[in-house]
Design brief:
Radius of gyration: 24 Å
Order of helices and strands: HEEEEEEEEEEEEEEEEEEE
Number of strands: 19
Number of helices: 1
Largest sheet: 10 strands, mixed
Strand order of the largest sheet: 5-6-2-8-10-12-18-14-17-16
Strand content: over 45%
Helix content: under 10%
Shape: globular
């Protein structure tokens, strides 16, 4: 029995389309948009440390006067985007981890993932942050920041460090391929140490000595901010406010 050539070609085309459909059908997400609120009470915590990792999505961090150590909101459309959250208190220190569980993205997935983290502005806190692609707004001016370690991927990031911090602060920043803007207080003594094969750091108003950069207030200001930057392919703008 012979099959007409046109029929044969039609069957082959149908088979191919079915194969492609089943191959990628698992890539389409049917998960609805979800909003969740997660709160950590202050209790007897004297200080805190937080590790935050978001690979796909937008991160917002701020601080305000509140009874809780953290009030957070997560808006997402795919189940795997909700982070794994762990928290415990040891010797008066609250230790928090908020980690996106898997860095995966199917071919046809449209990512909708936004985190909003509001910390208590009174409690001294160390932050360790890793960000992937997204629009990141980190207003750390109203947080009692003691140390910041941050790795930046793609996208746009804004970091406000103009707070009236109670002690000297050490900041370690690894740049990525996006654009990052950092605001610093002009009345604090600031020292930048900039390393990297490709240096795309703009820091007007600083005096350079080797790989170190100092603002005019460094010699006489009681408050000091020490920043170590490893620049990547992206652009980092340092602004004195």
């Amino acid at each position: 029995m012979f099959i007409n050539k046109r029929v044969f070609n039609f069957l082959i085309t149908v088979f191919f389309l079915c194969f492609v459909f089943f191959l990628f059908s698992g890539c389409f997400s049917t998960t609805e948009y979800t909003e969740e609120v997660y709160t950590i009470e202050l209790d007897d915590v004297q200080k805190a440390s937080a590790t935050i990792a978001i690979y796909n999505g937008d991160l917002s961090i701020s601080g305000k006067s509140q009874q809780a150590l953290l009030i957070s909101e997560f808006h997402y459309n795919l189940k795997y985007l909700f982070p794994e959250i762990t928290y415990f208190v040891q010797d008066g220190e609250g230790k928090l981890k908020i980690i996106q569980k898997e860095n995966k993205k199917a071919f046809f997935d449209k990512i909708e993932n936004k985190w909003s983290l509001i910390f208590n502005r009174e409690v001294p806190i160390e932050l360790d942050i890793a960000m992937g692609s997204g629009d990141n707004q980190l207003d750390l001016s109203a947080i009692n920041l003691t140390e910041l370690k941050i790795a930046i991927g793609a996208g746009e990031s804004f970091i406000d460090l103009t707070g009236n911090y109670e002690r000297d602060i050490h900041i370690y920043l690894v740049g990525g391929i996006g654009r990052t803007s950092i605001n610093l207080p002009n009345d604090a003594g600031i020292r930048l140490l900039i390393n990297g094969v490709l240096n795309h750091v703009s820091c007007d108003g600083f005096k350079r000595i080797g790989n170190f950069y100092y603002n005019s207030a460094f010699d006489f200001s009681e408050r000091k901010i020490f920043i170590t930057i490893i620049s990547g392919l992206g652009i980092i703008d340092i602004n004195l406010i």
